[in-house]
Amino acid sequence: MIQSDNSIPTISSSLSSNYDDNNGYYNIGSMILVAFCMGLSWIIVHRWGQRNKVGPKTWPLIGAALEQLMNYDNMHDWLVEYLSKSKTVVVPMPFTTYTYIAHPANVEHVLKTNFANYPKGEVYQSYMEVLLGNGIFNADGESWRKQRKTASFEFASKNLRDFSTVVFREYSLKLFNILSQASFEHRSVDMQELLMRMTLDSICKVGFGVEIGTLAPDLPENAFARAFHTANIIVTLRFIDPLWKLKKFFNVGSEALLSESIKIIDDFTYSVIRKRKAEIEEAKRSSNNIKMKHDILSRFIELGEDPEYNATEKSLRDIVLNFVIAGRDTTATTLSWAIYMIMTHESVTEKLYLELKAIEEERAKEENVDLIECDTEDPVSFNKRVSQFADLLTYDSLAKLYYLHAVVTETLRLYPAVPQDPKGILEDDVLPDGTKVKAGGMVTYVPYSMGRMEYNWGPDAADFKPERWLKDGFFQNASPFKFTAFQAGPRICLGKDSAYLQMKMALAILCRFYKFKLVPGHPIKYRMMTILSMAHGMKLTVSRCS
């Protein structure tokens, strides 16, 4: 009996304990279920509120990051789809909000009317600082104004223009000779890579007074070009990678590769600066009557002797890299897309060829020279005729090539070198179409999308049509707030005329004597980076024409 009585509380206590534990489990489970239901309800209500919204659909906390990440490799065309339905598209992200604009009125407001409210901004600068530092494309305020003022003197200089014409002709002929060899050997070439080499050599010669030699006949490997390309891709990825600062802190993944690339870039850049400084110092020691070179770097080195300017090797490094990206990547990619457009549109090929033949005959008559017979099967006579044609191409004669100018411009309309350009927002504002933008966010005008909008260019906006730029045979400009390939307002590109000069020189020489054909099966698509380059290059074959 005693044992029986004693056992009753033991069993009872055990049952009570189990009940309490299970009750606790039930309470936790209920809390989890309630939280899940609340979260699901939040998501449903959030998504229901977007049922009639034009633009990417968002999720709580992460905004449109998921959709943007899924469309990253095709982002420019992803934006075209949304901007064709709405002239302004708002894309919330975890730490900021991007407002994409494609209508000229909104673009003019951001780039000119309320320019002071839309600087590069701290967010953009934090992404690009490792590559561009405080150079002209990444700077704001007084630093930007000083650099722009100095650079504007150089770009307005007749000496620089004449020097550039000679240099662009020289390197266009070097490229021609490489293609000539390939054509006689029936080899394909990666045209984009060759154009990158040509423009790198050219900008280093025109901008910094140094010979790089990447376009030598043996096409030597160039660590700087490779590292610059890699760095450009990685800093672009930062715009949608919320973990990039963490990866940078631990120096892992893409940020580790970026660090390695920046070291190669800096080693090259500082060597260019020191070499140029040494040449200037040597010139000063060897003569009392020094004639300074007219390159951009020399101008900034000379300016750096003024204590108020306080130029350091780091500031010169930033200047060099900003002009390299301006003079190399943008020009080379535009030339690549232009050649692709020309060779895929037979009527454009024919019209351009006839214009170039006509200018050749006109210039030969003006100079009273007999044109060398062009034998496409004889490398010697063929190359001599090409050199003769190149000598006839002057700054003034290139200006008469209206159809060529239209071809380049139409290429830039559809394939702008800078497909997106984000700006920071200092204070809350309202765009002309009524869109409200908040301080701390980003406004991005989108040249790639703008060129494809029917509300900007009409029903044939998607067509490659150089004739849209011509009236009675002469080239007609469009508003820079509609055709935004060179930006507009106070930050409009200083190198626009120089870029056209180089592109027209190269295309005139190449398209007068060559026809291009894409290697069968070679894919053509853009790579997501700050510059609209071709992801897989452009493999093509070259055939000669007389």
UniProtKB/TrEMBL annotation:
Pfam families per UniProt: p450
Signal peptide: none
Places the protein is found: Membrane
Keyword Transmembrane helix: yes
Cross-referenced CDD domains: CYP86A
Topology of this chain in the membrane: Single-pass membrane protein
UniProt entry keywords in alphabetical sequence: Heme, Iron, Membrane, Metal-binding, Oxidoreductase, Transmembrane, Transmembrane helix
Positions of heme binding: 493
Cellular component terms (Gene Ontology): membrane
Segments traversing the membrane: 24-45
Cofactor or coenzyme needed: heme
Gene Ontology MF annotations: heme binding; iron ion binding; oxidoreductase activity, acting on paired donors, with incorporation or reduction of molecular oxygen, reduced iron-sulfur protein as one donor, and incorporation of one atom of oxygen
Family: Belongs to the cytochrome P450 family.
Name the UniProt record assigns to this protein: Cytochrome P450 704B1
Organism of provenance: Chenopodium quinoa
Lineage of the organism: Eukaryota, Viridiplantae, Streptophyta, Embryophyta, Tracheophyta
